[in-house]
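For reproducibility, we list the full input for the 1-deoxynojirimycin complex.
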Amino acid sequence: MSQLASRDERPWWRDAVTYQIYIRSFADSNGDGIGDVEGIRSRLPYLKKLGIDAIWITPWYPSPQHDHGYDVADYMDIEPEYGTLADAEELIKEAHGFGIKLIVDIVPNHTSSDHAWFQAALKAAPNSVERYRYMFRDGKGVNGDLPPNNWEAVFGGPAWERVTEANGTLGQWYLHLFAVEQPDLNWENPEVVSHLEDVLKFWLDRGVDGFRIDVAHGMFKEAGLPDITKDPVAEMLGTDHKPFWDQEGVHDIYRSWRKIFDSYPGDRMAVAEAWVSPASRIARYVRPDELQNSFNFEMLTTLWKASEIKKKINHSIDALAEVGAPTSWVFNNHDVVRSVDRLDLGLTNHGDTTRLRQGDPAQFNIARGTLRARSAALMMLALPGGAYLYQGEELAVPEVRDIPEDRLTDPRWKMSGYLDRGRDGCRVPLPWSSNPEGAFGFSKDDTLTPTQAWLPQSAWWGKFSVDSQDGVEGSTLSMYREALAIRKAEQGLGDGPMEWIQAGEDVVAFERPGDFACYINFGAAIELPSNSQILLATGPVHGHTLATDTAVWIRLIS
Ligand code: NOJ
Ligand code: CA
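The corresponding predicted structure, in tokenized form, follows.
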């Protein structure tokens, strides 16, 4: 198998392993039960030892936290609960000192309703310069009582909110594709375009290595804001056309952003959060003059089935190869049910996730889910391209399904009419110690109890802690550390070619340069090739027999 440029020669973002830090839930340095910048700083040695290449920090800007930072009130400062701009600058430098790159989250589709621009728009008159920064429209019907069109918000309910004008009368409507407190910006307005460019430069000047672009397929809306024609079949298949996603205009923006990244020293980059399909549409975001990475969400919507996974890998790699971009694998993030639960039930994150989010614990087999999640991780880390990990997956923490209803904070809970518990279950503050003091070590303040963390931790949370897995052979944490160390040592892993190995319909197996191979067994026990030397396994391997749900990395010795 031919080999591509060596790791030192290729840009880091082609195959980096990036660790997502959900700042509110990572580490709390001052005992208020909320994670913060100083908390991240204190855990850099942990991240270094884990062996990741980069961290992505979820939005840390001033925000009223209606959507935990994805409602930004000021793009050029730090949320006081999290620290100061000086703390952030220090963290960027210190991470670099550890050899860790740092990317920040940028939210260009909408601001917070607390943003100075939106507050000014509320006070201003219809058709004013202030309102032109957002998507204000007159309502339909005799008195403008009806929303301008039939669009629905992602979190549920109508995507339009009516405002009260300065004179006290009911007035125009504004668009919010997400929460009411997240008004959509008007990307046809050059002032919006240039402000976001200034924001990028602000953070690039402070040394960040890149950006994760929130709702990267949003921003532009189809001209005239047409009603959506309901097509139940397309809706079920997830192929329905939405006039606010994946519009051509976004690509002009990314072409100009790319010029900004390239004008800075070092390989500055951006990764798109673009929920578009098929893979050929994703490829358009990573054309050579646009962004460098786009999350590959295929594995979040996959069944635990070899044939489906193989198909998804092929489609993803082929589509991106056409534009010369690497694939960026994702098995977990702060928006989806943790892979331990998801893969146990073999369910996807598509459609109704109620069963996964609030199901009776008795229906879950955590041991099986853990084994599958570990196997999925070994597969991901052996595939060509980069990988994005989400904090806690290296501990195999499961979804927390017993958060009391009165402690749920995700806007989805309210906007779904209290039907969908939302995403809090994958955002519970990390357990660093098995001892409940300091919210299982999440907080520096020992007196903080697990239920005093901003999202309450369950009584059983400590058994997944870092200290109960650190240095323990066979723990998930040890497995991730070993996998990342092997990945670093093996020049052939990361970016580069792969070849399928035919090992049966219930097996995903592939070879990478350096006589390296990865096998994941989804069915009955199989025999590995007799010349396999086992480098790493997700569960016990007796002789050369690979049990169900288990994965191995092997060297094929001649
Ligand atoms: C995607 C983010 O990942 C999610 O957490 C957020 O709610 C929406 N974008 C809206 O910003
Ligand atoms: Ca704190």
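The pocket of calcium ion (ligand 2) is lined by residues 28-30, 32, 34, 36 (CB under 6 Å). The CA atoms of residues 62 and 79 lie 4 Å apart. Both points were considered when choosing residues for closer inspection.
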